[in-house]
């Protein structure tokens, strides 16, 4: 295959002016764009190859992602407008859900599912989130030992899985305390296998993976997970037979995401097929727990690293809660400083480190340069290069998100949840969970880092730490 010379690609610091890079902006994004006068031709595998080479040379972070995925043309063609990396690895496990769908079918699903994130539905979830967080904190109390730090990431993952199952599917998994639960084990195994596949370039080839022992294990786990999801859907369908309308259900219990899915009808009165239902349930379960687990874990880490901000958040939360020991929906809007700290964490440690798109139409910039239709472009949230270029951006400074400092900043300068029609449908859910988790943790514990075990960032589907996140926890009186 011919490799285009490097000069056909020019690095552009996109949005750097809007986001006030010199003033220490929150959201510098680095884009590689193809320059029309040097490469003005329809793009093909060669461009993807060049794009990939540059990434490999310039950013070790991108290397993992771009290594082979970008080269699989069949993938690129079937994924217009969607996230290449997650689609690549997840499609066989979560089916064709909202994250992976494209075109009219995506549009139909997005319209049907959006009501599932109305705040009326999200409100009752707060208590369930708080319950899940408390189970986790109780476990931490048991684990605290003098001078021994606790690895949080795994606990937080189980907590967010517990929380999404309870709130979105009214399913009591008890997964934080019951390690024997086969379904939970399978979901956790699938997450791990997806990461392992990404890290093994040979396994990026579907046939090789399909024939490998890991591929067989993966398929077995998928079958188990699907069987369980089907059962949950079947049982709910039975229950709903008598209840038919959402209003009637609501008088008996809180409406959940599954109710919305099962009652969703398009303008022709058509609902989702069984296969579509399963894909959406699985998508929300994966998207809804791994990402928030990453966000919460890194947030607690940032709080541990910066005791002054930790204390300020704690005081804000205590002021808001007064005598109460738990969080309510109305508290969220008052958590001003806490929200700034959350945003600053999402900037420095974006749970979704990369969003990729294949252009479905050419894009022309203000200076006349164009990106051709079909080109894959990627946005690195908080790229390695950007951070090297602007050292001030490495500083944890929540005040970047104060109303004064945010005023005038381009609305696309900070995009942890992406933007546009394919933005994150669960962002409100996620922000609520981050706030509940932080508030309740800070009320119970003082956090400090473990200098012997600093986390090592590793961007997989979500941003993780290679060696976990180890913090010292001190119980507050
Ligand atoms: C801190 C937590 C989260 C972050 C940072 C995050 C970030 C993102 C980003 C960047 C995208 C765009 C991906 C792309 O197009 O390639 C996305 C899409 C999506 N997210 Fe999230 N997410 C989070 C939590 C959640 C939760 C809790 C749910 C569900 C309950 C969820 C469900 C989805 C779905 C279904 C999509 C695909 C939307 C579409 O294409 O129409 N996310 N998320």
UniProtKB/TrEMBL annotation:
Keywords for the protein's UniProt record, in alphabetical order: Endoplasmic reticulum, Heme, Iron, Membrane, Metal-binding, Monooxygenase, Oxidoreductase
Cofactor dependence: heme
Pfam families: p450
Subcellular location: Endoplasmic reticulum membrane
Keyword Metal-binding: yes
SUPFAM superfamilies hit by this protein: Cytochrome P450
Transmembrane segments: none
GO molecular function ontology, one term from the record: iron ion binding
InterPro entries in the cross-refs: Cyt_P450, Cyt_P450_E_grp-I, Cyt_P450_sf, Cytochrome_P450_Monoox
Protein origin, superkingdom: Eukaryota
Gene Ontology CC: endoplasmic reticulum membrane
Ligand binding (heme): 424
Entry's family note: Belongs to the cytochrome P450 family.
Name of the featured protein: Cytochrome P450
Natural source organism: Chelonoidis abingdonii
Upper lineage: Eukaryota, Metazoa, Chordata, Craniata, Vertebrata
């Amino acid at each position: 295959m011919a490799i285009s010379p490097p000069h056909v690609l020019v690095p552009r610091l996109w949005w750097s002016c809007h986001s006030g890079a010199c003033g220490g902006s929150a959201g510098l994004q680095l884009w590689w764009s193809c320059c029309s006068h040097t490469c003005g031709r329809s793009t093909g595998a060669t461009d993807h190859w060049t794009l990939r080479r540059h990434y490999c040379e310039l950013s070790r972070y991108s290397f993992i992602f771009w290594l082979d995925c970008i080269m699989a043309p069949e993938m690129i063609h079937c994924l217009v407008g969607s996230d290449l990396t997650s689609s690549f690895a997840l499609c066989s496990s979560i089916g064709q859900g909202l994250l992976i769908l494209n075109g009219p079918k995506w549009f139909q699903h997005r319209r049907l599912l959006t009501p599932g994130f109305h705040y009326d539905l999200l409100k009752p979830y707060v208590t369930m989130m708080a319950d899940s967080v408390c189970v986790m904190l109780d476990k931490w109390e048991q684990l605290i030992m003098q001078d021994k730090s606790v690895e949080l990431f795994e606990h937080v993952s189980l907590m967010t899985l517990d929380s999404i199952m309870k709130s979105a599917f009214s399913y009591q998994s008890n997964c934080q305390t019951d390690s024997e639960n086969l379904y939970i084990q399978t979901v956790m195994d699938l997450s791990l296998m997806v990461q392992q596949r990404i890290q093994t370039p040979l396994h990026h080839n579907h046939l090789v993976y399909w024939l490998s022992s890991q591929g067989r294990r993966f398929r077995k786990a998928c079958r188990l997970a699907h069987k369980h999801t089907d059962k949950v859907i079947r049982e709910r369908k039975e229950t709903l037979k008598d209840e038919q309308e959402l209003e009637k259900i609501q008088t008996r219990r809180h409406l959940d995401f599954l109710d919305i899915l099962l009652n969703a009808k398009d303008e022709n009165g058509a609902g989702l097929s069984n296969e579509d239902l399963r894909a959406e349930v699985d998508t929300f379960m994966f998207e809804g727990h791994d990402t928030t687990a990453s966000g919460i874990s890194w947030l607690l880490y940032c709080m541990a690293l910066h005791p002054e901000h930790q204390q300020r958040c704690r005081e804000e939360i205590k002021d808001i809660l007064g005598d109460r020991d738990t969080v309510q929906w109305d508290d969220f809007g008052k958590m001003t400083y806490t929200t700034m700290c959350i945003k600053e964490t999402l900037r420095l440690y974006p749970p979704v480190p990369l969003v990729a798109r294949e252009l479905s139409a050419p894009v022309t910039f203000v200076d006349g340069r164009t990106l051709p239709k079909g080109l894959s472009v990627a946005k690195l949230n908080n790229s390695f290069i950007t951070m090297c270029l602007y050292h001030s951006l490495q500083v944890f400074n929540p005040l970047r998100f104060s109303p004064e400092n945010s005023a005038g900043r381009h609305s696309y300068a900070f995009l942890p949840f992406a933007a546009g029609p394919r933005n994150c449908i669960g962002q409100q859910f996620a922000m609520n969970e981050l706030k509940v988790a932080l508030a309740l943790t800070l009320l119970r514990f003082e956090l400090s880092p473990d200098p012997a075990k600093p986390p090592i960032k590793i961007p997989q589907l979500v941003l993780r730490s290679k060696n976990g996140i180890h913090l010292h926890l001190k119980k507050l009186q």
